[in-house]
Fold this protein.
Amino acid sequence: MSNAVSEAVFTLLSGDNTLVSYLASPPSGYPASIFESMAPQGASSPYISFGQYTGNPDYTLKVKVRDSYLYRIIATVQGPERSMKDATQIAERVEQLLFDADLAVSGKTLMMCRKYVDLTNDDIVEGVLHFYAGALYRIEVT
């Protein structure tokens, strides 16, 4: 994982049997179909991709008081056998897990984990319909 916050998000999501049951079997070498940044080539749908969208320190006068991140967490499903309903079901489970989650961020103290904005989209990739559902999550640590 690229940083302690990413590792904590992955650990929380991949440790939930309900969420993992909604996802395809992972490719060889991966513990779950939850991927940082993007899914590897050949990954089956449905899967989750996640990553840091933005990150910035917050200051009070000259004192750094916290680091604030936005994380993009998206469920991807492919049609025609799957639909936006399937992507939304995965996104809703992610929201249940992350709302005020007690993320174990190594070396940091978690202040807040909340959904910031919903993200949905559909697209045709190489002739196959894809549905995307998820959100940006605000994660603040000290």
